[in-house]
Amino acid sequence: MNERRRSGNRNENRQMGSRANRGEGERRGNRGDTRRRSPEGGAGAPRRADAWRRGEAPRPSARRDGETRRKPRQIDARDASCEEPIVALDEQVQTQLIKGRHPVATALAEGRPINKVVIAEGAVEGGYEHIVARAKEQGIVVQFVPRSRLDAIAGQAHQGVVAYVAPYEYAELEDIIARDTGVTGLVVVLDGVTDPHNLGAIIRTAEAAGAQGVVIGKHRAAPLTETVAKAAAGALEYLPVARVANIVQALEKLKDAGYWVVGTTVDADHRMVDVDYRHKTVVVIGSEGAGLHRLVSDRCDFLVNIPILGRVQSLNASVAAGVMLYEVVRQRT
Q1: Calculated CA dihedral for residues 224, 227, 230, 236, nearest 10 degrees
Q2: N or C end of the chain: smaller count of CB under 10 Å?
Q3: Average pLDDT of the chain?
């Protein structure tokens, strides 16, 4: 009798626990379904354009074009915490390397602070005289080492010359917005691009297209490193890069400054050529795997696709950026 009573109590407890779990699950489900949704056209809704054709594309309103820009903040500190330092074999300090003839020559020409230039022995006869001469004019130490030692310091993709430099300084977003390039405003925003070669190639293309700057995230994104600098082929000496904690907030600031935001995604219903880029424009490029994050795509005024005729349904991020940027250039020239 007592054993049956205990068994019955256990069964009753299990049933009560099951009902409690179901109730908890229902409550959780209800909470998940009560997300606030912005009404159509409300303040929280993303801006969308009804007219997509270039001839009918909306223009920024006078209110947005007349917005007072924030005063640019002076850069007073380096954010070197996410750099990729390289420790030379004969130095005890952490620094970065610029590798290759053109990147080193560009850094010298632009007056970037350089601690030392290291050249492989015998390379002077190979067209490096101008690098040596420019470095000595600026009082920069030039050191000649065996090529095997340079390989050990910098790997093999150095073309016989490297320069030790201070880490790159990031610009402020306000600096990029205020930057006058002589052409209509153009900013490139990268959402989750983690490959440094892609980042460098995009910076190079953005500079060639007359962009004011590039904006990257602090999290889940490639920082500025020597690999990026080499892929950028000297463009980092001319084009500012801002590093922000929140891409969505950066897009809002750009929109407040009168920019129209165009994001690329493979499943967009409209082609990239259907949008008018002759006004201040932000081009947003996502990662090759995940594409644009939902909150980022929600902040875009336009979502467009790049037409693809083959079976591969996506492009390399740097290629997609190049295609988009030169559609902007084509319409403006």
Answers
A1: 0
A2: N
A3: 77
Pick the CATH number of 169-332 from 3.40.50.150, 3.40.1280.10, 3.30.70.100, 3.40.50.720: 3.40.1280.10
Residue 321: Cβ within 10 Å count: 27
User: What is the four-CA torsion angle of 178, 179, 182, 188, rounded to 10 degrees?
Assistant: -100
What's the pLDDT tens digit per position in 66-103? 444 443 333 232 332 233 333 333 333 346 788 888 88
- Tokens representing 89 are 């074999």
Give the separation between CA 88 and CA 95, rounded to whole angstroms: 8
Terminus-to-terminus CA distance in the chain, angstroms? 94
Q: Show me where the domains of the chain are located.
A: 86-165, 169-332
Return the CATH number of the domain spanning residue range 86-165: 3.30.1330.30
Q: What are phi and psi of 269, to 5 degrees?
A: -85, -10
The full 3-state SS of 100-162, as one line of letters, equals: CHHHHHHHHHCCCCEEEEEEECCHHHHCCHHHHHHHHHCCCEEEEECHHHHHHHHCCCCCCEE
